[in-house]
Amino acid sequence: MKILLAADTSEYTRRAARHLVTHLSWFAEPPQVLVLHVHPPIPYPGAAARVGKAALEGFLAEESEAALATATKELDKAKVAYTARWVSGNVAEQIAVVVKKEKVDLVVMGSHGEGALANLVLGSVATKVIASIKTPVLIVR
Question: How many CB atoms lie within 10 A of CB 53?
Answer without folding.
Answer: 10
